[in-house]
């Protein structure tokens, strides 16, 4: 099965840029999107339930801000969908957990720590909460996939200009350390594990200065999995040629025996 993740930078804007046509051609089994900037009832019916898909939404209380949603084919309808369970993050629509018999798919939009570390404490608290949720699901006997926009480039290889960005949001040492701690807890950044020494793989490019054309980017979007799920991974790829947002989709193929 294929699980895609994409920060669409506004689902209504993405809809005007061909989102539904792309989805019909790509046909992932599950697509998690972040930064929807909308409630379900605010979007057109074809963005609520594209042909062959249903969707579940977890939107921010504030209209036009943040939010996540997941699209899935009938075969991959979850048994349940749960928020993170912490109002500090649920009010911003930061994460939803799709519960299946043997695994959990968490769709997350990590906060931006912002200039001068204005929201760094909030970001680190979210890291702690999502890490605890992943461990709890894993310890209950389920496999875990955590996908989404983590809003952090973990290592120097994950952004084009690390030396120039060491004190910038998304590459603060504290954020990278939080990612270290999450992975040390028994999880795998599966793209980096399968492409260990390959630079210039990015998922976000600034709209300014033709950054995408020049591939001056950051890898901010991930699939991380529990270590025990590793044998069922077929491939992890970045779909850098897909337009429609300042992010591109990332895709994980898992053995269909899940």
Give the structure's gist in a few sentences:
This protein has 258 residues and is of the alpha+beta class. The chain is built from eight helices and 14 strands. The strands form three sheets. Strands 3-4-2-1-14-13 form a six-stranded mixed sheet.
Q: How would you state the average pLDDT, rounded?
A: 97
Main sheet specs: 6 strands, mixed
The CATH topology assignment is: Deoxyribonuclease I, Chain A
Structural class assignment: alpha+beta
| Cross-sheet strand order for the largest sheet | 3-4-2-1-14-13
Total count of strands = 14
CATH class term: Alpha Beta
Order of helices and strands: EHHEHEEEHEEHEHEHEHEEEE
Instruction: Examine the secondary-structure arrangement and name the CATH architecture.
Output: 4-Layer Sandwich
Gap from first CA to last CA: 8 Å
Helix segment tally: 8
- What would the principal axes of the Cα set say about the shape? globular
CATH superfamily: Endonuclease/exonuclease/phosphatase
Beta content = 25-35%
Report the radius of gyration as a whole number of Å. 17 Å
Q: Approximately how much helix is present in the residues?
A: 10-25%
């Amino acid at each position: 099965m294929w699980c895609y993740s994409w920060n669409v930078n506004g689902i209504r804007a993405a809809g005007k840029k061909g989102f539904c046509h792309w989805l019909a051609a790509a046909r992932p089994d599950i697509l998690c999107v972040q930064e929807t900037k909308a409630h379900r009832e605010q979007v057109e019916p074809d963005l609520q339930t594209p042909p062959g898909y249903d969707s579940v939404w977890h939107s921010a209380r504030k209209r036009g801000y943040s939010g996540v949603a997941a699209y899935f084919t009938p075969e991959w309808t979850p048994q349940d969908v749960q928020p993170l369970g912490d109002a500090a993050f649920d009010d911003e629509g930061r994460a939803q957990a799709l519960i299946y018999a043997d695994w959990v798919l968490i769709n997350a939009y990590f906060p931006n720590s912002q200039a001068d570390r204005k929201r760094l404490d909030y970001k680190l608290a979210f890291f702690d909460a999502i890490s605890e949720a992943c461990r709890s699901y894993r310890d209950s006997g389920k496999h875990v996939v955590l996908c989404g926009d983590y809003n952090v480039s973990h290592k120097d290889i994950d952004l084009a200009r690390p030396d120039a960005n060491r004190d910038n949001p998304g590459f603060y040492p504290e954020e990278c350390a939080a990612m270290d701690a999450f992975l040390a807890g028994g999880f795998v950044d599966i793209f980096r594990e399968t492409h260990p020494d390959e630079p210039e793989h990015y998922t976000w490019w600034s709209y300014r200065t033709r950054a995408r054309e020049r591939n001056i980017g950051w890898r901010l979007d991930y699939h991380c999995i529990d270590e025990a799920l590793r044998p069922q991974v077929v491939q992890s790829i970045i779909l850098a040629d897909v337009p429609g947002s300042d992010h591109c989709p990332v895709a994980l193929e898992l053995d269909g025996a899940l």
